[in-house]
Amino acid sequence: xxxxxxxxxxxxxxxxxxxxxxxxxxxxxxxxxxxxxxxxxxxxxxxxxxxxxxxxxxxxxxxxxxxxxxxxxxxxxxxxxxxxxxxxxxxxxxxxxxxxxxxxxxxxxxxxxxxxxxxxxxxxxxxxxxxxxxxxxxxxxxxxxxxxxxxxxxxxxxxxxxxxxxxxxxxxxxxxxxxxxxxxxxxxxxxxxxxxxxxxxxxxxxxxxxxxxxxxxxxxxxxxxxxxxxxxxxxxxxxxxxxxxxxxxxxxxxxxxxxxxxxxxxxxxxxxxxxxxxxxxxxxxxxxxxxxxxxxxxxxxxxxxxxxxxxxxxxxxxxxxxxxxxxxxxxxxxxxxxxxxxxxxxxxxxxxxxxxxxxxxxxxxxxxxxxxxxxxxxxxxxxxxxxxxxxxxxxxxxxxxxxxxxxxxxxxxxxxxxxxxxxxxxxxxxxxxxxxxxxxxxxxxxxxxxxxxxxxxxxxxxxxxxxxxxxxxxxxxxxxxxxxxxxxxxxxxxxxxxxxxx
Length: 502
Description:
This protein is an all-alpha fold. It has 17 helices and no strands.
């Protein structure tokens, strides 16, 4: 068991390293990309990705099913069942890949015409959509052979390959744009390095897990029924979640403009990377939770959820306080003039995100113990209210209306409903949970906002040096506050477990 926890620590380290490098690359390169392509052409790229994200529903929830059952059977060393599940999934994914190509070709000629895309970028948008659609189709072919290492508790390899892919792809994109190329070579860079990463993953899987024998065949109704029963709910969750995460951009493209899509995506991108930071922990936890569930250690799962949410609330509200104080300065320094609306949207989104994101641990718990049907109901309700409110509010408030339509359901659902659903699953005390929330979130928000505001009164962060110095000071003050108020013995236990010590 110590080896499992130690491997989880490696997974977390590499996932955070991958995220840190990706954020750094985005921070350094995205202004160059946006200014080189222009708001309209970059907005077309955002819409292409949003459209393709809807196609990922054809995964049918199988990736989550693979994580669940491979990690479960690894726990009891049932390699025959692992091969049965993988072979069945491989056959299904080959069919899905063909469907993705067909659907991409259809959407490239019919979907883009319905959006407010300037005529001069329509051809580039179509070709980019086809390239990225083929990339997605081939990605489905690779899932079982090279993109399922996380299910074997080897997220460290997956994230290591992602780091290499991000660095090489970014370098290629910079060269292409400096040479005057546009959206089509931009998409080709994504295609080439994505496929190289997946091929490398396949090589690692063959070497590390030689017992895996995948055949392009149906492995019996038992394996299929097991995968589909779990995967159906995961599939419906993916449909609902993709609807939520891409609705904003599509509504903006329909009601407003591609330029508005770019401005909104700048703000939303910060939330995406904060979410990625949380998911870097919560996703590797899913196979670990399934393992604990298989050996009937519910107390370990409860410890993960209650302690994890407490520390994540501190983190997200620390980021929220910093964003409220420094958000305007960040957007101005990073993007230059003309993006004030992006800063406004960022401030609207950040605190509700601070409420919502730590509950990624609740999602991991529900996936890990096969209670994810509850998550489906949650996301369906959120998606319905998101769409209705956004359509109503965009007509009156523009971009801000889209943001309000997103955050209002988040606050209600993830602060009230989700803890009520988790309570009977893990037998947690809601009163203690909310006291922990107020303690962590309120403390982090208060100390970060007050200290940041006072620092800006002393010296306006109108340059990068002052900006980073003041943000670093706020982070250090907040960490000191957290060190003083959190249970040090509890923190010591957590770090010892991650190092594989008792």
